[in-house]
Amino acid sequence: MHADTQWLAILPWLGGLVFLLAVELSSRRIGRHLREEERALICPIRRRSVSLTVVTDRRTGRTLGVRRCTAFTDPEDVRCRRECVSG
Q: Distances from the Cα of 40 to the Cαs of 36, 53, 87, in angstroms?
């Protein structure tokens, strides 16, 4: 390789670095609009008291989903239609 074209070998690395930086910054921006909050309620399916962690949109206040629920053996593995937060 000639000395005046060696910098071309750096371009793919530099492009990859810029791409990774853009992905990181956009994911941080999206994450700022989400909020987790703890709730206690009666599960409409199991008909018992549960504690759950819901994810809401900070801007709209809309509930986006359930991250954790004590109605399940593994609270992190929520396997229902999430009727407690739908509607």
A: 13, 9, 17
